[in-house]
Amino acid sequence: MEKKPLRISLDELCDVMENSSFENEYYLDLETGEILFISEYMDIEETEKLRDRIEEEFDRYEQIPKVESHEGYENMVDFIATVKDEHLTDLLEVAINGKGAFRRFKDVLLNYPEERERWFRFKDDRMEEKALEWLESINVSLTEE
Predict the structure, then answer these.
(1) Residue 36 CB contacts under 8 Å (≥ 6 apart), including other chains
(2) 139 lies in some domain
(3) Number of compact structural domains in the chain
(4) Is 140 within a domain?
(5) Cα gap 33→10, rounded to integer Å
(6) What distance in Å separates the CA atoms of residue 4 and residue 120, rounded to the nearest whole number?
(7) I want to staple 127 with a disulfide (CB 3.0 to 4.6 A). Which of 14, 66, 72, 138 is the partner?
(8) What share of the chain has pLDDT > 70, as a percent?
C-alpha cells in the first residue's frame, strides 16, 4: 500500500502525543494534515459538532495516540544510561524512584544545564521517532512544509 504524503507539523504532532490527557483527544485529518482538538473543557455544542464530523467521515480521521507515562519513565532510564558523570547518574537514579519521579528528575537536572539541554534533545528525538513510527503504521509520510 502506498503511503499518503501529508503536510503535518512534526513538532505539533509530538507535542500533542506527549501532552494529551484523558480530558483531551486529538485527531489527524488524513486529507489536510490538520490536527483536530477535542476537550472536556470546550463548548458542548462545538465538541458535539467535531465528534459528529469525525463519526460521519471516520475514514478521514485517525485518533492520535497518547504517550503513556511508563514510556516517559523508560526515556528517563535510557537517558541516565548515557550520563558520563557518575555523581549525576547516582542522583538521577535516586530521583526516579517512587512517586514524583518526573518532577525530581527535572529538579536534579536544573543544576546541570548542559545535561538538561541534552535531556530535552534526547526526549525530543524519542518523541519524533515515536511520531514517525505511528505515521508509518497508518501509511502516512511527511512532506516538506
Answers:
(1) 26, 27, 28, 29, 50, 54, 61
(2) no
(3) 2
(4) no
(5) 10
(6) 30
(7) 14
(8) 97
Q: Coil, strand, or helix at residue 27?
A: strand
Q: Is residue 145 part of a domain?
A: no
Exposure on the CB side of residue 25, measured as CA atoms within 13 A: 11
Integer Cα distance of 107 and 19 in angstroms: 20
Beta-strand runs (E) in the chain? 4-6, 24-29, 35-39, 61-63, 140-142
pLDDT tens digits, residue range 47-74?
A: 999 999 999 999 999 999 998 888 999 9
List pLDDT tens digits, range 67-77: 888 899 999 99
Strand bridging mode 24-29 / 35-39: antiparallel
Alpha carbon of 16 to those of 13, 25, 26, 99, 109: distances in Å? 5, 9, 7, 24, 24
CB 82 within 8 A of CB 73: no
For residue 14 the three cell numbers come to: 509530538
- 50 and 90 in one domain? no
Global confidence as pTM: 0.83
- Domain-embedded: residue 137: no
